[in-house]
Amino acid sequence: MIIAVDAAGGEYAPHEVIKGAIKAAREYQVEIALVGRKEILYVQAGRHLGKLGMTIIDANDVIGPDEPPIEAVDSKPNSSIVIGVNLVKDGAASAFVSAGNTGAMLYSSFIILGKIPGVDRPAIGSLITINTGSPVLLIDSGANANCRPHHLVQFAQLGSTYFHGLFGIDAPRVSLLNTGEEESKGNSLAQESYQLLKKTDLNFTGNIEGQDIARGKTDVIVTDGFTGNILLKTLEGISAHWLYSLLQSGQVFSKAYRLSLQALNRDIGMDAWAKRLDYRESGGACLLGVNGNIIIAHGRSQATAIKNAIGLAKQTVEQNIRDNIMEDTYEQTGISG
After folding, report:
1. Max CA distance (Å), the chain
2. Angle (CA) 205 318 23, round 5°
3. CB atoms within 10 A of CB 213
4. CA-wise closest residue to 21 among 320, 308, 316, 292
5. Is residue 279 within 8 Å of residue 237, measured between CB atoms?
6. Alpha carbon of 99 to those of 17, 23, 152, 244, 326: distances in Å?
7. Cα–Cα distance between 241 and 277 in angstroms, integer?
8. Which residues share a beta bridge with 85?
């Protein structure tokens, strides 16, 4: 298994990306191909290449975070994102991880890898791990702002297959994000999607409200990408605030009781809470429905987040998520690849 990693993408590239890739190579025992400007990567990662089985793929161009995705991808064929996605297409890499321009990642994946037959709209599936005993998959979390009801049904199918692959749960519970639990609640998109979801063979449990997301009531939450992205970023913002407050409180208590902060965090269980609240623990999100394994990491990803995104990529490959989606889509639509 070779996992390609965009060493030029994200706010902290290349240094933090390289650190995360080195940690992942050691912990997960995977071969990693760093994609970026080779002269820079050789200086920062050269001494680790032979020992960890890491390689460098030269990419002269970088797509910036604010560049228009379509124009940037079309005009920069030698960018780290385009080369990374092509590595997956050509079979030279089993997966590609990037914290770079999300729009460019989406567009390049669509045009280079193509969609799995039967999938109209690939979607981003993001794991929410506030409740560590009951993780939840949010789909779509940002790929499709404007959706029709049958798109949400496809998201539900993609999410159910993905969740089953990651956690081995048969018939994951699927819920529709809405303003109330009643069948008649919500706008026309929610109401029509509800009626279609009832007719599928999915384990559809009805509507779920925002306050129930972390209560272990469902496994897959379905919504459009506009709403999903707002929800995801709201949770990240709240979690970051609580994590900061938690760490500040820990410093106060450690001084009062003359204990090291690390020891105090461990003794009273603050480490576990910190992991719950830290978005870096989930690492990245999988783009489901394209013909390849693509992991989109947060633009602010540092070493820990990159390492965990690579771990998610490894798990996605090992569980044959793409092939499972292809098989399930064929069963549902009769369209084969």
Report:
1. 66
2. 110
3. 20
4. 308
5. no
6. 9, 17, 26, 23, 26
7. 9
8. none
Q: Give dist(CA 160, CA 182) in Å, integer.
A: 22
Residue 103, classed as helix, strand or coil, is: helix
Write down the domain spans for the chain: 2-119+289-319, 120-280
Burial of 272 (0-12, 13-18, 19+ CB in 10 A): exposed
pLDDT tier at 202 (50, 70, 90 boundaries)? very high
The per-residue pLDDT for range 23-78, each reduced to its tens digit, is 999 999 999 999 999 999 999 988 888 888 899 999 999 999 999 999 999 999 99
Cα–Cα distance measured from residue 88 to residue 94, given in angstroms and rounded to the nearest whole number = 6
- Does the global pTM surpass 0.90? no
**2-119+289-319, which class in CATH?**
alpha beta
SS3 at position 289? coil
Residues 281-307: b if buried by 16+ CB within 10 A, e if exposed:
ebbbbbbbbbbbbbbbbbbebbbbbbb
Query: Is there a contact between 280 and 304 (Cβ–Cβ < 8 Å)?
Result: yes
Task: Extract long-range pairs of 106-111: CB within 8 Å, 24+ residues apart.
Answer: 106/69, 106/143, 106/287, 106/296, 107/69, 107/70, 107/73, 108/73, 108/81, 108/82, 109/85, 109/287, 109/290, 109/292, 109/294, 110/290, 111/73
Cis peptide before 122 (omega within 30 of 0): no
Q: How far is CA 31 from CA 46, 58, 109, in A?
A: 15, 17, 22
Name the pLDDT band for 201 (thresholds 50, 70, 90).
Answer: very high
Task: Classify domain 120-280 at the CATH superfamily level.
Answer: Isopropylmalate Dehydrogenase (3.40.718.10)
Tokens for 286, please give them. 């999988």
**Pairing state between β 95-98 and 55-58:** unpaired
Domains 2-119+289-319 and 120-280 share a fold: yes
